[in-house]
Amino acid sequence: MAQGAKETVSSEASLRSKVFTRLENDILNGHYAVGENFTEARVAEDLGVSRTPVREAIRQLELEGLVTYIPNKGATVKGLSKEDIQDIGEIRMKIEGIAARRAAVNIQDEQIAELHEILDLENFYTQRGDFQPILDLDTRFHKLIFQASGSRLLSLTLRQFHHYLQQSRETSMHDKDRAEKMLLEHQRILEAIEVRDSEKAETQMAQHVKNATKNINKLQERKDKPAK
To answer: For the stretch 165-192, what's the b/e string if a residue is b when 16 or more beta carbons lie within 10 angstroms of its beta carbon?
Structure first.
């Protein structure tokens, strides 16, 4: 294949990827509401691109279950259902539990020190009632445990689940009661990891994810409940 042709193919693939990422983020962040319809022409105009990468991105979104696509009519946003959130929670309980168990064995001293620093900041912002930074701190906490587990595949898998739940997670962080409970749960996880108790670390992590999932479902039910 000639150099010019290779660059064209690469450019098209890059554009398709960018359009997909933008649409996926817009759906997960609530820019497009569940049940909302949008067409290739509308998205192409909004993003300033041709309809071809938009069409391909929408088809990829359909494969991921985030939209329903009807040719010549457009796409309808499905988003994440209550069942999707519950499934993700159950999978996370298992996988993040494994990550915490492995972290208790493989974690380095500098990683433990960083986890303490994260929890100190989490406590600081929770006491202030400043919940916006807590989402980033929560992400850092889990990411560091993934890294300490020593498994690259665990990290990649769990990063996608956190991405899918980003809007729900952000909403839950603005609940002071949940933020305080989350801090306590993180502290228990770290205590187990620090004393190298792999079984307890796994149990505490699984419970933490279970509680987080219950809270997300509660917020979703409240959101979906019709106004009187």
So the answer is: bebbbbbbbeeeebbeebbebbbbbbeb
